[in-house]
Predict the structure.
Amino acid sequence: MNLLNVNSLSVSFFTKESETKILQNISFQLSKNSITAVVGESGSGKSISALALMGLLPRKISKITEGSILFNDQNLIDLDEKSFRQIRGKDIAMIFQEPMSSLNPSMRCGRQVEEILKQHTQLSKSKIKSDVLELFEKVKLPNPKRIFKAYPHEISGGQKQRVMIAMAIACKPKLLIADEPTTALDVTVQKEILELLKEIQRETQMSILFISHDLSLVSELAENIIVMYKGEIVEQGSTESIFKNPKHNYTKALISARPSIEYRLKKLPTIADFMSKTLDNSRISDANRLKNHEKLYSQKPLLEVIDIEKTYLSKNGWFSKDIPFKAVNAVSFKVYPGETIGLVGESGCGKSTLGNAILQLDKATSGILKYKGRDITNLRPSDLRKLRKDIQIIFQDPFASLNPRLSVGNAIMEPMIVHNIGSSDEERRLKVIDILKKVGLDASAFNRYPHEFSGGQRQRIGIARTIALEPQLIVCDESVSALDISVQAQVLNLLNDLKERFNFTYIFISHDLAVVKYMADQLIVMNKGEVEEIGDADEIYRLPKREYTKKLIHAIPKGL
């Protein structure tokens, strides 16, 4: 018997003028004691499906227009809010995508999990506390007593996600919905969370509905997969059948859009390529790569990083001495014109701190930076401002780095005015429109605002703003980590295309090793502020020398 039966479910969102169908006649089943994954890009309807199951659709602007949701033979659509509250958290629980925005920043972690037990059980105060500590142990949180008293900002991203899991399983639900619970996590932490969910599922025999945009990832967890595209289910079946014999072009695109760690394609396939059947599967041969590297490394280095260190001071109390903490410790390497150097490691390894030190956004404590043979470590502010034109950054979150009050065109023109690029506003405007076209946007984007664009489009705007200054060295700091697999493929293709066209040099920072492998010539693996391993990217993936590197590579989702 099935635990959940979703039959011909349709959901619409309303404005005063119009109705938009978000889900269109979706049907699927979830059996007891099973794990099913729902995959698709942003906007495919995955999260709306989950919110409908939880009774959390926004009431005034959305409506279930037809269909039924049978949970243990009870139609959830017929329930009022009070009745749903008895089920939500107790029988159906949810792990949300972003733990930092789901956890209350003003409440201690333990207290937040206690609230769930107070709501749905009659347990005593002391029993609730001991149960929460037991849950923290079950989700493998280090030092449960410390985390019980800690606020969300005092623990890491992986630990916050474990607190969310503890909260979700507190009442032993029959169905757990996990909405992109590992998207922003390191590969190693991601693997730990997946193992944890599998272990808890085996132990409690609950059913899990796991929502993700990453097919390779869900192949390591789910028995069955549901593929969604534009509000419809286009394919569903066992994980093995979906991977071994995908029928729909969209499913084939999702499987192929993730960079392979076995070989290098000249261009990553996108959804559009599959839908229009214009695939180009040509690969970069080892001989071509070797020839390119001989040319690259016969040049003088563009940037030299020599024994860079960054030390922070942390206080242990009001009257105690400051404790020094080395975030980056004696890091040295060279970057050559036209090269892409990959910088990888887990959160907290020092890669973004190193990037900021190179950009001089957060100056190094010691060491030397040389750009085109010139020492730029201690430049005067006026000289540093001139250097900013040559060394630029593409940020991880383009929405946070764009001014919401400035139109896209003005946001791109602003740094051009600062650096005297173009002799008039009209000349700059024409240049900006040309750049927008180069990054795959049209001229109408000039007068629109950041909130009017999707995540992938905003990342293109961020790239346009960076290349408008005609820089020579670009630091890409986790610039594709929050994007859908297929949008990520488009942006990576764009970065490679721009590199060929303008001879850019990239320092590519990421925790996603498959992406870095696709992009990088040389690879730097960082661990606890130090360089763990450095060398040719392909060689390191083929024969990693250090245990830490082996652990990172082993944690990459491989698919079936």
User: Anything to note?
Assistant: The longest helix spans residues 187-204. The first strand starts at residue 2 and ends at 14.
